[in-house]
Amino acid sequence: MRNARRRASQRGQGMTEYIIIVGLIAILLIAAVKAFRNTLAATYNKARGDVQSQVTNQLGTDVSDTIGE
């Protein structure tokens, strides 16, 4: 009986520790995205522009006309 209670308590403790770790990782990811927001946006926009120019060159038309920009 005691062993069953002890195991249940340890499982609850393990779950609590897991939740705390997942929460801390989420907070760190949010902070990293906020810290590097401008760099991430610039990288995304450059990649988007490169892809769009490649597609435009391949098709010979302006892709922005076909995607509604």
Which descriptors apply to this entry?
about 70 residues; mainly alpha; about 90% helix
Describe the structure.
This protein has 69 residues and is mainly α. It has one domain (2-55). Helix content is 90%, strand content 0%. It is built from three helices and no strands. It is elongated, with a radius of gyration of 25 Å. It starts with a helix and ends with a helix. 0% of the residues are buried. The mean pLDDT is 83.
Count of DSSP H/I helices: 3
Percent range of helical residues: over 70%
Number of strands: 0
| Total domains | 1
Poorly predicted parts? none
Strand content: under 5%
Query: Biggest sheet, in brief?
Result: none
| Structural class by helix and strand composition | mainly alpha
